[in-house]
Design brief:
CATH topology of one domain: Jelly Rolls
CATH architecture of one domain: Sandwich
Order of helices and strands: HHEEEEEEEEEEE
Radius of gyration: 45 Å
Shape: rod-shaped
Oligomer: single chain
Largest sheet: 4 strands, antiparallel
Distance between the termini: 114 Å
Helix content: under 10%
Strand order of the largest sheet: 5-11-7-9
Length: 226
C-alpha cells in the first residue's frame, strides 16, 4: 500500500469493495449507502423527541420565543400584561385591556357589542323613620281615577317616602302611588294593608278610591334618606 501524507488515507477500489462510492463522487444531499432507503435516512436524521408539524400532544414547554403567539395560535399577541388589568376578547384580534377601576367599583356589562367597564356601585343610604299619630286623609273622592293628595301639611320637607294604611271595605279598588307614576298600585276588598309610597319634592302622592264611604286612608309616618 502506498504511504499517505499526513491526514490522508490511501486505498484502491479493490481493497474497499465494489459497493463503496468514493467521496469525490458524492453530491451534497445524496444518500449513497444502498442498504439505507431515503425514507429511513430522513427518519434517522430527525432529532429524537422533536415536535412534529401538525397536532402535537407531547410538548411540555416552549422557550426562546421572541414573537408573542397570535390569538389563532392560542396566545394574546402581547409580550407583557399590565398588573391587575383584565383582558376582553376581540374575536381573532388581540384582546383588549380593561383599565383597573377604583376601590369599591364593580365590573358592569355595557350590553352586546361593548366592552365591560368598572363603574361606581349604587348609592348607599340609610333611612330614618318618623312615626305620626294616624292622620286620616279625607280629601279623596270616589271618581275611580287617580287623584293628587298633598301631604305637605303633615310631612316635613325633605322626606322621601310616606307610609300609609289603607282600609278597603268596598267592592272596588283603593291604593296610593308616586305622583306621575303609571302603575295601578291598588287592591280590592282585603281589609287593612300598609303601602309605602315615594314622595315628590312637594310631598304629593296619588290616590285611587272606588268609594269614599268604604275606603279609608291614614298617614302613619314617613321615611327620610340620610
Amino acid at each position: 500500500m502506498p504511504i499517505a501524507s499526513s491526514g490522508n488515507v490511501v486505498f484502491n477500489s479493490a481493497q474497499l469493495g465494489a459497493d463503496v462510492v468514493l467521496s469525490s463522487k458524492i453530491k451534497d444531499g445524496e444518500i449513497v449507502n444502498g442498504d439505507i432507503s431515503a425514507a429511513a435516512a430522513i427518519a434517522l436524521s430527525k432529532v429524537p423527541g422533536a415536535a412534529a408539524k401538525g397536532a402535537n400532544n407531547d410538548i411540555t414547554s416552549l422557550s426562546g420565543l421572541t414573537t408573542p403567539l397570535s390569538v389563532e395560535q392560542g396566545g394574546t399577541e402581547r409580550a407583557s400584561l399590565d398588573a391587575n388589568e383584565l383582558l376582553v376578547g376581540a374575536g381573532v384580534g388581540a384582546p383588549v385591556s380593561i383599565p383597573v377601576g377604583n376601590s369599591g367599583e364593580y365590573l358592569k356589562s355595557n350590553g352586546a357589542g361593548a366592552d365591560p367597564s368598572f363603574q361606581a356601585g349604587p348609592t348607599q343610604f340609610t333611612l330614618t323613620y318618623t312615626e305620626l299619630a294616624p292622620v286620616e286623609i279625607t280629601d279623596h273622592i270616589n271618581s275611580g281615577e287617580w287623584r293628587d293628595i298633598d301631604l305637605s301639611g303633615s310631612i316635613a320637607a325633605g322626606a322621601d317616602y310616606a307610609e300609609i294604611v289603607v282600609y278597603n271595605l268596598a267592592e272596588g279598588n283603593g291604593g296610593v302611588r308616586k305622583n306621575g307614576s303609571a302603575l295601578n298600585r291598588y287592591l280590592g276588598k282585603v281589609g287593612g294593608f300598609t303601602m309605602t309610597v315615594e314622595l315628590d319634592a312637594n310631598r304629593i302622592v296619588e290616590w285611587y278610591a272606588y268609594s269614599t264611604t268604604n275606603i279609608y286612608i291614614y298617614l302613619v309616618g314617613y321615611w327620610t334618606k340620610n
